[in-house]
Design goal:
380 residues; alpha/beta; Rossmann fold; 2 domains; four-stranded parallel β-sheet; 12 helices; 14 strands; disordered N terminus
């Protein structure tokens, strides 16, 4: 009897030690590169906030395979040099298993060689098509490609029988990528670009470019950039009495743009992820449940609306979670499982990665919205 009791006691102690060992397992480290401050903070701040919120939620629910996630995030300030320095730190000092971000196309392109050499999977939160075209083994993205945004805008122009347009693009990585797509796709939609101009990221007046557009014969204007430049374009266009339809890129898909543009935002059209019109979607929409949960969760934590940009980080963390659950926390295993992701209904769209597609979305990831009465309305 004593031997039996001793065996049971030893067995219970062993189980307790094993459980304690599992609980004491080190966290899986995830790196974050976000432009929390600087001109791109409207991207990076909600991304950082969302990433931490989602990691906290995963940990509260028991982690991934019984292990907690640890988010180690650095502020790139939207500066490519700082982004590269932070990426090196995440890889060499923090020993992260994967990285999400950066927030901008320029920062992402600068960081890609660093993570590829280190063989660390990275899920960018930036939109430039060139991030994943051509495919790079270790690089994925969650922001919808600018090529898909162009297709959504051009489809609407074709429906309205508009064939002559002016484009005004910011002279940075996001703007140049958008400009390439605008020019490349125009002929397929029967569209001719009659005015092609640029502006600097820090420019505070675009009157000269818009005056030129006014006399160009254009039937619509497409401005491609991220805040604050597009808001300046909107205000200047109103001041000049420019009555042409004005389209913006998905780079301004948040309430912050409306705040910056004020009354000049009225009537502006843009492609966007569904999150900013989540409550207007039919119940049959595959993303609606995730979208509403994200918006509610972000409002609870930060007393602000969850937006299109925070959604990129939500998708990145959840995609990593799925990859780790299926394949483990080894960087190579994470990479392989990311590439095998199929039909993941996230915030930015329904993702299906493959060896030939590390962006994972179709043009259905975008809806067209119009700004009406200082809010976003879904264009049917």
């Amino acid at each position: 009897m004593l031997k039996k009791s001793s065996f049971i006691l030893t067995f219970v102690v062993s189980l307790a030690l094993l459980a304690g060992s599992a609980l004491a397992a080190p966290p899986i480290k995830i790196g974050g590169l976000f432009a929390v401050t600087g001109p791109a903070s409207f991207l990076g701040e909600p991304e950082r906030n969302t990433a931490q919120m989602v990691v906290n939620g995963i940990n509260a629910a028991g982690g991934v395979k019984g292990r907690k996630l640890e988010l180690i995030a650095y502020d790139t300030q939207g500066d490519a040099t700082k982004a590269v320095q932070a990426a090196n730190r995440l890889i060499k000092e923090d020993k992260v298993a994967a990285i999400i971000g950066p927030s901008t196309t320029g920062d992402t392109m600068a960081v890609i060689p660093v993570v590829e050499r280190a063989r660390i999977p990275m899920i960018s939160c930036a939109a430039g098509s060139k991030i994943t075209e051509p495919v790079k083994k270790w690089i994925f993205k969650t922001a919808q490609n600018d090529g898909l945004a162009v297709a959504r805008i051009y489809g609407d122009l074709k429906r309205k029988k508009i064939s002559k347009i002016a484009i005004l693009t910011v002279s940075d990585g996001f703007g140049s990528s958008g400009r390439e797509q605008l020019k490349a796709q125009a002929s397929a939609y029967g569209i001719r670009i009659v005015s092609d101009d640029t502006y600097g990221p820090k420019d505070t007046d675009m009157t000269a470019q818009l005056t030129k557009i006014k006399g160009s014969g254009a039937q619509a204007v497409i401005c491609w950039g991220t805040n604050p430049g597009p808001a300046v374009v909107a205000r200047n266009a109103k001041q000049l009495g420019l009555k042409l339809p004005l389209y913006m890129s998905h780079g301004v898909s948040s309430k912050k743009f409306i705040g910056l543009a004020g009354g000049a935002a009225e009537g502006i059209l843009l492609p966007s992820g569904r999150v900013i019109v989540a409550d207007l979607l039919p119940n049959s929409d595959r993303q609606k449940k995730s979208l509403l949960a994200f918006v509610k969760d972000y409002q609870k934590h930060y007393k602000a609306e969850g937006d299109h940009f925070g959604g990129h980080a939500w998708d990145a963390i959840m995609l990593l979670k799925g990859a780790i659950e299926r394949g483990g926390e080894n960087p190579a295993a994470i990479r392989d499982q990311l590439e095998r992701t199929r039909g993941f209904a996230g915030i930015g769209g329904v993702f299906s990665y493959s060896p030939s597609d590390h962006a994972g979305l179709t043009k259905d990831a975008f809806v067209l919205v119009e700004i009406r009465k200082q809010d976003f309305a879904l264009v049917k």
